[in-house]
Design a protein that fits this description.
Helices cover 21% and strands 37% of the residues. By secondary structure, it is of the alpha+beta class. The protein has one domain (6-190): Aminopeptidase (3-Layer(aba) Sandwich). The termini are far apart. InterPro entries: NodA (IPR003484).
Length: 196
């Protein structure tokens, strides 16, 4: 039987060093099974990869951190339209709790999204997660948009890498203060910074 998950919403400046240490360990263990390079950014007790979230929803149970979702308000460019969004990212669920569902963390974050008054929630995921996310789309929680490339800056500049990267990913959009019909269409989205 799974233990109950208790959620904590906290702004980035409320986190203590011990919180970052625990989060970094959580991310190494959660992202590591998908490839060592995915766990690498969390070495040295860093609890973010590219852009640093401003707000986090952290789920705890009797074993420690169970799940995490980060939020960062930013302007993205969808085609020629500058658009304020709350980017959602750094999503993770401890491997022994897979199936906990992204919907739970989004439900925890939802009141804050409405309080912030952002027009849309925005995120990107791998194509392999399409079926998982489309279940939530049937409930009107989000829309999965395909056929869009997202341009981002690399979180760290390396001499052997381009300063930007373009990825073919699934874009996830959640209507918050505006309806989905007002989301602009474009084949390219510029994040104008690193991925959350």
């Amino acid at each position: 039987m799974r233990s109950q998950v208790q959620w904590r919403l906290c702004w980035e400046n409320e986190l203590q060093v011990a919180d970052h240490v625990e989060l970094a360990d959580f991310f190494r263990k959660t992202y590591g099974p998908t490839g060592a390079f995915n766990a690498e950014p969390f070495e040295g007790n860093r609890s973010w990869v590219g852009a640093r979230p401003e707000l986090r929803a952290i789920g705890y149970d009797s074993k420690g951190i169970a799940a995490h979702l980060g939020l960062l308000r930013r302007f993205i460019k969808v085609g020629a339209v500058d658009l304020l969004v709350a980017e959602l990212g750094l999503y993770g669920v401890r491997p022994d709790l897979e199936g906990l569902g992204i919907a739970r963390s989004i439900h925890v974050m939802s009141p804050v999204l409405h309080e912030l008054g952002v027009p849309f929630g925005f995120g990107t995921v791998r194509h392999a997660l399409r079926n998982h996310l489309e279940r939530f789309g049937r409930h009107g929680l989000m829309t999965v948009v395909s056929g869009v490339c997202v341009r981002s800056t690399h979180p760290q500049v390396h001499l052997h890498l381009s300063a930007t990267r373009v990825e073919d990913v699934l874009v996830v959009v959640m209507p918050i203060a505006r309806p989905m019909s007002e989301w602009p269409t474009s084949a390219i989205i510029d994040r104008n910074g690193p991925e959350l």
